[in-house]
Structure formats: C-alpha cells, structure tokens
Design brief:
- This protein has one domain.
- 84% of the residues lie in helices and 0% in strands.
- It has three helices and no strands.
- It has helices at 2-17, 23-40, 44-65.
- The longest helix is centred in the last third of the chain and has 22 residues, at 44-65.
- The termini are far apart.
Length: 67
C-alpha cells in the first residue's frame, strides 16, 4: 500500500515542476495513504510527519489559488 502513496507523491512532485496547482491534491492523497498505512503498522511517528506534510500541501494549494 505504501508504494501507491509514493506514486501519488511522485506525480505531485512532477506536476509542481510544471507549476500545476493540482500537484498539491496528489500530494495530499499520497500523504493520506501513508497516514493510513503507518497507523495500520503502528508507526505513529511516520503518521505524524505525513500529517504535517499533508497540511503543508493543503496550505500551498490554497495559497497558489490566490494568485
């Protein structure tokens, strides 16, 4: 399941290079997958970091929409 999250994260990073706002949506989806995966595996430190990165991606999606 983790590799599916990585696919979304890689797509998000790729689209950021093209300055595409929807890149952050892919990043949030990838982080959510990692949060669920890490909670299932009881890796709460990883889940915490993924939540932080997901919140940052949502923030950036919002800020890029203001332009």
């Amino acid at each position: 399941m983790g590799w599916v999250g990585n696919v979304f994260l890689i797509i998000g990073l790729w689209l950021i290079g093209y300055r595409d706002r929807k890149a952050f949506v892919f990043s949030v989806i990838g982080e959510l997958i990692w949060v669920f995966y890490s909670i299932q595996r009881e890796m709460y430190d990883l889940a915490f970091i993924c939540v932080i990165f997901g919140v940052l991606a949502m923030r950036n999606w919002y800020l890029w929409g203001k332009k």
